[in-house]
Amino acid sequence: MPKRVLSGVKPSAEMMHLGNWFGAVRQFVELQATEDNYIFIADYHAMTTVHDAKQLRANSLEIATQYMACGLDPAHTVLWRQSDVPEVCELTWLLSCVTGMGLLERAHGYKSARQEGRDVSMGLFCYPVLMAADILAYEADIVPVGEDQVQHVEMTRDMAERFNNTYGDTLKLPAYRLAKGALRVPGVDGQKMSKSYGNTIGLFEPEGAMKKKIMGIVTDSTPMGTPLDPDKCTVFALHTLFPGDDLEELRAAYLSGTIGYGGAKKALLTKVLDALAPIRARYDELKRDPSYVADVLREGAVKARLVARRTMDACRLAAGFADPVG
Ligand code: AMP
Fold this sequence. Notes:
This protein is mainly α. Helices cover 54% and strands 8% of the residues. The strands form 2 sheets. Strands 1-2-3 form a 3-stranded parallel sheet. It has 2 domains: 4-184 and 289-319, HUPs (Rossmann fold, 3-Layer(aba) Sandwich), CATH 3.40.50; 195-284, Tyrosyl-Transfer RNA Synthetase (Orthogonal Bundle). Bound molecules: adenosine monophosphate.
């Protein structure tokens, strides 16, 4: 029996990078073969930081385009924009009324915003309730998370339990799934690849820009002809993301000094471009047809909304609001 796996993706103007692909997106694409995959573009969440309407709209479409280019298939994954299902806001209110402020005061996001002296909007403070509503509205079985998000699923379970204890068994409790042996893709400077470090290799960058980045990966200055340590080399670490027969040969060439960093970088560029060729081509195709992507999101929202409506009707009934059919 397939499980309903739910994930939200914050729309961002920045391009998806190799770290996102190997660390997250690839798993979503694999899951759609066996599980009931539900993925939403978390534009309500983005509103805690983005207040430019044009940018928010464009970002949502862009991130959907990138996910679809990476292989998310609307025939196997329900993909929609969070804000197209207003029921989640309604559920947020119902959950807010059974959630103590103390619980929200313990949320990592709120605590770090306070520590950094940032302004905290009610939206940011209530963020975990909206996240819980997203998970509970769609009757999710499993929410795949990184370690930093375990707390959100635990809070969601707390809120659902409070609701169920108050009004009777209505909401389904989700479980989280922690990515095992989480992969750490290094960026061009050797630190973890991340938009905030400016060290990314974007999946859809023009070939020239990608070449410049890969040829610029930071290495030591061991001269050509000297043995190199593959286990201390960012270029080699990036090669290992693409398993193949050539990896052992490459390791041997490093150890014997028959390859230099320049050669290893050129081989990496070829490998990255070959591996990404289908998704880059699909991206170009989708960019030429934004109305198709918009249609996919709309159709996804219709399917998602049916589930959310059902949950909402049950919650309204349980909490003493008008009978939805009356
Ligand atoms: P971000 O856009 O930085 O929030 O990343 C989204 C997801 O991509 C994260 O939750 C990780 O699963 C994955 N990810 C991002 N950067 C890396 C990286 N350098 N190595 C492995 N996974 C990553």
